[in-house]
Amino acid sequence: MQHLVIMSGSDDGKDDGDASVIVDTKPKTKRPPLYKVLLLNDDYTPMEFVVAVLERFFGMSHAQAFEIMLTVHKKGVAVVGVFSHEIAETKVAQVMDFARRHQHPLQCTMEKE
Ligand code: TYC
Q1: Are the C-beta atoms of 27 and 42 separated by less than 8 Å?
Q2: Ligand 1 in reach of 104 Cβ (< 6 A)
Q3: Is 45 in the pocket of ligand 1 (CB under 6 A)?
Q4: Are 23 and 6 in contact (CB under 8 A)?
Q5: What is the pTM of this model?
Q6: Could you read off the pLDDT of 36-75 as tens digits, one per residue?
Q7: pLDDT tens digits for range 81-90
Q8: Strand, helix or coil at 14?
Q9: Residue with the nearest Cα to atom 13 of ligand 1?
Q10: Strand pairing category for 20-24 and 3-7
Q11: Which residue puts its alpha carbon closest to atom 12 of ligand 1?
């Protein structure tokens, strides 16, 4: 937060013992932190399952989803979205639950941006 010090009395800028007030110079509208949701590669989850996850939970087109899936497959990890803490947590839980129900070892995590 930035502040402005205002001193009363003589205007030479020197501190002559007068009272001073501190006022905010910027309104305090801190944006909430954002979180990256990451998808991790593994050797067993079928490619088409990962594509379906990206379509279902991240609103990607089939082409987009296939592209990101291939990036994870080749590089080991990719950011699949950036969200508020609460939304990121929900996405991670949805993916992990969906993978578990289908008995795939797919891993999804989040980290502060
Ligand atoms: N590596 C997997 C396979 O060859 C495919 C895969 C892609 C798995 C992305 C997980 O997040 C992942 N079947």
Answers
A1: no
A2: no
A3: yes
A4: yes
A5: 0.80
A6: 999 999 999 999 999 999 999 999 999 999 999 999 999 9
A7: 999 999 999 9
A8: coil
A9: 46
A10: antiparallel
A11: 41
Tokens matching residue 13: 């800028």
Q: Supply φ then ψ for residue 5, to 5 degrees.
A: -95, 125
Q: What angle do CA 80, 76, 57 make, to 5 degrees?
A: 25
Task: Give the count of beta carbons closer than 10 Å to the beta carbon of residue 70.
Answer: 14
Give the distance from CA 27 to its chain's centroid: 24
Whether the per-residue pLDDT at 14 is higher than 50: the answer is no
Q: Measured from the CB, is residue 72 less than 6 Å from ligand 1?
A: yes
For ligand 1, whether the C-beta of 77 sits within 6 Å is: no
Q: With contact defined as beta carbons under 8 Å apart, do 112 and 38 qualify?
A: no
Measured in degrees and rounded to the nearest 5, phi and psi for residue 13 equal 80, -10
Token representation of residue 104: 């795939």
Contacts of 28 (CB under 8 A, 6+ apart): 1
Alpha-carbon dihedral 45, 72, 47, 53, rounded to 10 degrees: 80
Residues 95 and 73: their CA atoms lie apart, in Å, by 17
